[in-house]
Design brief:
The chain is globular, with a radius of gyration of 16 Å. Helix 2 runs parallel beside helix 3. The protein has an 8-stranded parallel β-sheet. The protein has one domain: Aldolase class I (TIM Barrel, Alpha-Beta Barrel). It contains 8 helices and 8 strands. The model has no long low-confidence stretch (mean pLDDT 97). The chain is of the alpha/beta class. Bound molecules: D-xylitol-5-phosphate and zinc ion. The site of D-xylitol-5-phosphate has 21 residues, from strand 2, strand 8 and helix 7.
């Protein structure tokens, strides 16, 4: 199995101390930093615009894993790329042309992710697998931290893991929503190799480093 990477979601950090919260991730064992961008339209919540991201970019050298929950997504991609995103993930429902949106992200020199909501079938992205770097499987309906993990999405994780293997593709499978010490091993077993976690890492039992270490355990 691939090495497991952890991408803490700063949606659950203390926003009054956002800079130092991000600095805490620097030597914590985190592999990426997950930034949930919400527009109050594609999802019923509002979060970070590009100016916030360009400010926090100075607090860490870890790759910024930017999860765009905004629609229409394309016209904002360049702004998020300029702000410091390394991976840009969008939802297929947020564009009228998946192929073109992939091209816009690539033309900014960034890695491409596509995210599937719990109800979005795998078939929506099957034609694009050769062109993307990451599949983000949502294990909750996007919009809020602290929701309950939906085990039914593990079937999609298994499906993509076996497809990646049989077609020898180079794609990460990331899972997002309700990942804790009980659900992380299920996601890893199904084939996820990047775990996003907000509540468990920032508000969990121990300090951030311990929580990250325990999430990685299989
Ligand atoms: C939900 C976001 C998640 C969320 C995860 O829309 O995409 O990244 O912050 O939070 P937890 O780990 O608390 O479920
Ligand atoms: Zn997310």
């Amino acid at each position: 199995m691939n090495q497991i990477k952890i991408s803490p979601s700063i949606l659950s950090c203390d926003f009054s101390e956002i800079g130092s919260e991000i600095e805490k991730l620097n030597n914590s064992g985190a592999d990426l930093i997950h930034i949930d961008v919400m527009d109050g339209h594609f999802v019923p919540n509002l979060t970070f615009g590009p100016p916030v991201i360009s400010k926090i970019r100075k607090c860490s050298k870890l790759p910024f894993d930017v999860h765009l929950m905004i629609s229409p997504v394309e016209k904002y991609i360049q702004d998020y790329a300029n702000a410091g995103a390394d991976i840009i993930t969008f939802h297929p429902e947020a564009t009228d042309n998946i192929q073109r949106t992939i091209g816009v992200i690539k033309s900014c020199g960034k890695k491409v992710g596509i995210s599937l909501n719990p109800e979005t079938p795998s078939t929506v992205i099957e034609n694009y697998l050769k062109e993307i770097d990451l599949i983000l499987i949502m294990s909750v309906n996007p919009g809020f931290a602290g929701q309950k993990f939906m085990p039914k999405v593990l079937e999609k994780v298994k499906f993509f893991r076996s497809k990646i293997k049989s077609e020898n593709l180079n794609i990460d499978i990331e899972i997002d929503g309700g990942i804790d010490f009980k659900t992380a091993p299920l996601a890893i077993k199904a084939g996820a190799n990047i775990l996003v976690s907000g509540t468990t890492i920032f508000k969990g039992e121990n300090n951030i480093s311990e929580n990250i270490k325990n999430l990685r355990k299989q």
